[in-house]
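Consider the following assembly input.
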Amino acid sequence: MEKLFVYISGLLFGLGVSIGGMANPAKVQNFFDVAGVWDPSLAFVMGGALLVSAPGYWLVFKRGRPVFGSAFNVPTNRKLDARLIGGSAVFGVGWGIAGFCPGASIPVLSTLNPDVLIFTAALIGGILIAKGAMKITAARRDAMQAA
Amino acid sequence: MEVIETAFTPWASLIGGLLIGLGTVLLMAMRGNVLGATGILAGFMTPSSSSDWGWRAVMIAGMLSGPIAILLFTGGFPTIEVPVNRWMMIIGGLIVGIGVTYGSGCTSGHGVCGISRLSPRSITATLTFMLTAGITVYILRHVIGG
């Protein structure tokens, strides 16, 4: 039962991304091209999502716990650090270059569009590179602290 | 890079957004998880346990079904128009992967889930990546390409 709801959640997300135009790199780049062929559509995707998710989350959190589980698993870190801001700045550059973000490229993998496949493969490569680099940094820091 | 003009689609985009919001709330209500594409994908590739892997696999299967459902109902996949070459797809993908890992999230995790929780980290992250995406497109189209 739980898996069915998770599947529906993913399906709604995949439909929304596709219908909203979020997985169309031309539309994404045009959204950011305020000085050129501006297409403000994606503000409606973001706005529409928040219109449901903000009050929806509030109602869900008021209930105290998820239907299948004992507690909500939400990030508790509240620190505004260089890693967050630097990482997000870098993400924006990549998003601007390719016109795809992770949530947009994953659902449309099923179209087998070659650009989507190439972007997502590179995305996974980037995630693995960053995870590897983070591990090395953490190991170095531990070694320095131990010394 | 070339410029492909796109039509303003307020209704389709609004409906798409509402569906994304519904999926986001449903996952939190049922399983208590944030619907962040970066986190779901990263956890799918490097799972912490088999039970933690299962729901991510189902989630991704659901996501992949979206465009297939659209194909069944409309006879065509969603429109994907790519104004940039393959090299930019590869470079962009690598940069996105590195950025979202260090930044702990992307448009869905920070931009939808985090902002809905009024998380100061997510609000900061979203403003940051929207700004740098805008600057990047401006430079590519009006400084280099202009």
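The mean pLDDT of chain A is 96. Ask yourself how this observation constrains the way the partners meet.
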